[in-house]
Amino acid sequence: MRFRKLSVVVALGLVAALSACGSSKSEVKTSNTDLGGKTVTIAVENAYPPFNYVNKDTNVAEGWDYTVWREICKRANCKAEFKEAAWDGMIQAVSEGQFDAAADGITITAERAKVVNFSNGYIKIEQRLMVKKGEDRFTSLDEVKAGDYKIGTQTGTTNFEAASKLYGEGRVSGFETFALATQALLNDDVDAVIIDDTAGQGYVGADREQLELLEGSISSDELGFIFPKGSDLVGPVNAALKEMEADGTMKTINDEFFSPDFEAPVAE
What we know:
This protein is of the alpha/beta class. 32% of the residues lie in helices and 22% in strands. It has nine helices and 14 strands. The chain has helices at 8-18, 64-76, 90-95, 141-146, 158-167, 178-186, 197-206, 234-246, 249-257; strands at residues 38-44, 47-48, 52-54, 61-62, 78-84, 101-102, 116-118, 123-132, 151-154, 172-175, 192-196, 211-213, 219-223, 226-228. Strands 8, 9, 10, 11, 12 and 13 form a six-stranded mixed beta sheet that branches. It has a three-stranded parallel beta sheet with strand order 5-1-6. Strands 2-3-4 form a three-stranded antiparallel beta sheet. The longest helix is centred in the N-terminal third of the chain and has 13 residues, at 64-76. The chain is globular.
């Protein structure tokens, strides 16, 4: 069965999985960690809906990352200051202390953990293939692999690594952003885009008439925020995330941004 628009059952299942750690507000405990009003600079790409994007109607940057980090800072007594940065080089920039943190759907890997500290994982995502709506040359991941179809994705991501390993580097085209990869798909320059399902649903939600996700998961990964090695922010952020899961705040935010009805207000 093909993924048509955004299946309510699948989407609700995703929201439930993202919020599995949530419980009643009676279980909330106030964190003893206080950052004393510290300003925390957070790198975001502003091109990864629903996590971060620029609202085409207001020209204001928003998304899941913005909402979650502002809530974290309410609990840890800090001020979130978001800095737009290109994905390429973002992890290195954080490792060098150019930013206090980064929030951009960053997959937790052992290799990355050598240069940055990760928060606890806050979402488990699946890598999926995004295709043009009504695609009939293939209907499964196996058919894509067996064919000679071109795959687009963003460079420097675990999606690029997975695509190169699964399909061979000769079939993979790298782009600076997922928005550019998506445009290449719409222009028929590539046949599919490998992307995290949460972000893929964001792009599908913004253009339901032209995009859909192919059924099936390529891999399952966990996302986390990153910090320079030895950062004193890791403990307070983890404490805040734990509280948000316990009191249902994380579920409320996930329900908003990962709802089957959510359409990221981004330019098509």
